[in-house]
Structures are given as C-alpha cells and as structure tokens.
Amino acid sequence: MRLEPMRRRHIRRCVEIEKILFSGDSPWSAGAFHAELDAGGYYLVALDDDGEVAGYAGLALLGRPGDWETSVHTIGVLPSHQSRGIGTALLEALLTRADELAAPVFLEVRTDNDSAIRLYEKHGFSRVGLRKRYYQPSGADAYTMTRPARRAQEVAR
C-alpha cells in the first residue's frame, strides 16, 4: 500500500467507494470531490499493490498562514481492505499536514462508529460537541471532535 495525492483520475473510484460505505447518508458525488480539490484541500488516496484505490482521505484547510484551522472532511477504506492499517495511515498523513501548519483539527463522526471514534481518540482527539441528525437522510447523530494544534517539531520529540 502506498499513499499519494488524489488526482482527478482517482475520483470515479472514490465515488464508487463512497456509495459502498455511505449509501444511507448521501455519499459524495464526483462534483463534491472536484470541488474539494479545487478549493485546495489536502487529499490522498491509498493504492493497493495493483495500483487500485483502496481508500482515500481529505483535509480541508481554512484560514490563512499563521492562523490555519483544518477539518477532516472524509476518510474511506474499501471493506475488503479494512483492518489493515490503511485508515490509520491516511489519518496520520492528514495529521502530519495539520502539524506542519500548526493547525487544530476538527471532524465529525457518527456516534455509532465505535472503531472510528477509538482511532480518533488514540490520535489525540476529544469530543467537544454533538450534532443531532447531522447525517442525512439517515438522521444519524455525529460527535464533533477536535485535536489541538501541534507544531511538527513538538511531534518529533
């Protein structure tokens, strides 16, 4: 498995994975992925040994130099590739980028997604809010979680 920047050629497969993972909660369209890339987000794909997209993740950058905030907008891994560390690798790559910017990181996660919540807590996130009926059309609730800003030099210690 290797990580590389998401390119427009990867979007079709990411949309297919979205439909598998999030069919009950408005999976992202190709237009949504294009808009995120156009906005300058930090998006990665995880490619398997055959060069096929096995997962993806994206970090939105908000603000301006010296006053950045970041938000994990998506992480998805094909069910057949889950529990292999791909989601962890994608998250860690996003967090490395946030650390380079010394930016706090925010995200939303379904309240019933215990494995994702554990992953985020393991990486320094804490719950700071609850968004009722955040995911549509299912109406599932989401926790808002955050990880404070860290400087890359602090992380290296």
Structure description:
With 157 residues, the chain is an alpha+beta fold. It has a single domain (2-156), classed as Aminopeptidase, CATH 3.40.630. The chain is built from five helices and seven strands; from the N terminus they run βααβββαβαββα. It has helices at 11-21, 30-38, 86-100, 114-122, 152-156, and strands spanning 2-5, 42-47, 53-64, 67-77, 105-110, 126-131, 142-147. A seven-stranded mixed beta sheet has the order 1-2-3-4-5-7-6, sandwiched between helices. β4, α3 (86-100) and β5 (105-110) form a beta-alpha-beta unit. It is globular and about 35 Å long.
The proportion of residues forming helix, as a percent range, comes to: 25-40%
- Structural category: alpha+beta
Order of helices and strands: EHHEEEHEHEEH
Give a count of the beta strands, DSSP E runs of length 2 or more.
7
Envelope shape: globular
| Oligomerization status of the protein chains | single chain
Instruction: Just give the CATH class.
Output: Alpha Beta
Number of domains: 1
- Rg over CA atoms, rounded to whole Å, is 15 Å
Strand content: 25-35%
First CA to last CA: what distance? 27 Å
The main pleated sheet reads as: 7 strands, mixed
Assign the CATH architecture.
3-Layer(aba) Sandwich
Mean pLDDT: 92
Short summary of the structure?
It is built from 5 helices and 7 strands. It has helices spanning 11-21, 30-38, 86-100, 114-122, 152-156, and strands spanning 2-5, 42-47, 53-64, 67-77, 105-110, 126-131, 142-147.
